Write a sequence for this structure.
């Protein structure tokens, strides 16, 4: 079976590569010539652990191709996955679907033989039907079905999530489409991974519901962390206690500086916008997004307060810029909000991140990007952890003590046990726990 992926962004590239690993012949198509040229030279447009090796392997074995030639790829396809971007509309918060419908328009006249066109992008309820109608108008005689197949990939763990998912959600309305989609994921169903077949609307809404619920858990524990700080409780213990309850679960109960990335903020806003357009009240969902944005600003104030109420003229070593570890994704990262506030307050900023590219973000103008932790901390009045990279979980405290101006660690990811930092003779400020002073 031949598969075409429209779009070589995060979802498209990971999905196409993993489907090739399943044994299908996969062609990934993109309009951006530079991306295709780089992929054909084994240069990845994103950082995702394990992705490059898997791409190189499947290209070498003749199962994975990259091209700008849409017509050739579509004409040979049994299944086409639309995996283009659906960014947030600037004025409404709703998903911008222009690239989805452009793809549908371009695919329509190129179809040959029975084909299933799949919306893999995260799209609002009703989009799959609109894709079907768009293709039907453009190609009245085409033999095709549509399907909705939302992705549930975590950046930094996307390969494992695709190859070993907890479930695969597929919205279909015909037996032919169901059979073909079942074939696409047969290697998973053979391992008794659930393939959940439903209608288009349920499949589409399930993605938004899942991401918004996880975002809600994050914002909830962040607010509990704020409460813990003022009453002498320990949010790490609270999260552990809550997580032992099977009804709650331990995932996404780690406090932080506010969630970001390409999914949670965008999907929460899009779900709220979809509800508002249909005059459905969703105050909880509205609050998740607004309180998350407020938290990022509050974290900047927390850093300033930890530095004695002012950072003017003080050097801060910023460890981590991406929205989470194991990705180079800067979208909606807390650092995009926090660092400009600190700069405006007069701080001198030196930043280290293993993968982030700050050249594309005007928010980081004037921030010194350095190649390692020790260089970032040279002469620092405080060290600030913003991202939970593994490399930051074992800081070389003895070496850092020699280079910093003040032994102050502000940890917005709670990477350390309190005693471990204080024994290293650093003052330690974290989330939802008491500030502790060094032990001499």
């Amino acid at each position: 079976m031949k598969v075409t992926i429209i779009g070589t962004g995060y979802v498209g590239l990971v999905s196409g590569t993993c489907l090739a690993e399943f044994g299908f012949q996969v062609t990934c198509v993109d309009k951006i010539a530079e991306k295709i040229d780089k992929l054909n030279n084994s240069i990845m447009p994103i950082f995702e652990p394990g992705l490059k090796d898997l791409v190189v392997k499947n290209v070498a074995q003749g199962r994975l191709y990259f091209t700008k030639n849409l017509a050739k790829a579509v004409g040979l396809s049994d299944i086409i996955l639309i995996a283009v971007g659906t960014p947030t509309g600037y004025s409404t918060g709703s998903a911008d679907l222009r690239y989805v419908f452009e793809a549908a328009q371009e695919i329509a006249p190129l179809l040959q033989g029975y084909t299933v066109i799949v919306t893999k992008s995260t799209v609002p309820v009703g989009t799959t039907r609109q894709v079907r109608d768009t293709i039907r108008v453009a190609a009245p005689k085409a033999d095709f079905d549509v399907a909705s197949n939302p992705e549930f990939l975590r950046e930094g763990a996307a390969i494992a999530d695709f190859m070993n998912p907890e479930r695969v959600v597929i919205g279909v309305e015909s037996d032919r489409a169901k059979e073909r989609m079942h074939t696409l994921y047969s290697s998973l169903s053979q391992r008794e991974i659930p393939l959940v077949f439903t209608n288009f609307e349920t499949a589409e809404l399930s993605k938004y519901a899942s991401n918004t619920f996880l975002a809600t858990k994050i914002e909830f524990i962040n607010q509990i962390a704020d409460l813990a700080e003022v009453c002498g409780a320990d949010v790490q213990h609270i999260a552990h206690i809550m997580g032992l309850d099977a009804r709650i679960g331990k995932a996404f109960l780690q406090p932080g500086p506010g969630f970001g990335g390409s999914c949670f903020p965008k999907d929460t806003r899009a779900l709220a916008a979809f509800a508002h357009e249909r005059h459905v009240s969703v105050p909880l969902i509205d609050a998740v997004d607004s309180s998350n944005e407020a938290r990022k600003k509050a974290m900047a104030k927390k850093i300033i307060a930890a530095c004695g109420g002012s950072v003017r003229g003080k050097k801060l070593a910023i460890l981590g810029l991406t929205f989470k570890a194991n990705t180079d994704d800067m979208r909606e990262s807390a650092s995009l909000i926090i660092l400009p506030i600190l700069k405006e307050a007069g701080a001198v900023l030196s930043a280290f991140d293993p993968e982030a590219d700050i050249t594309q973000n005007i928010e980081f103008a004037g921030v010194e990007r350095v190649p390692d932790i020790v260089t970032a901390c040279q002469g620092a009045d405080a060290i600030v952890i913003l991202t939970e990279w593994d490399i930051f979980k074992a800081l070389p405290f003895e070496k850092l003590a020699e280079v910093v101006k003040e032994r102050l660690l502000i940890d917005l990811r709670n990477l350390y046990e309190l005693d471990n930092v204080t024994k290293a003779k650093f003052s330690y400020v974290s989330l939802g726990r008491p500030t502790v002073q060094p032990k001499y």
In short: The longest strand covers residues 2-6. The two ends are 67 Å apart (CA to CA). The domain at 2-198 is CATH 3.40.50.720 (Rossmann fold).
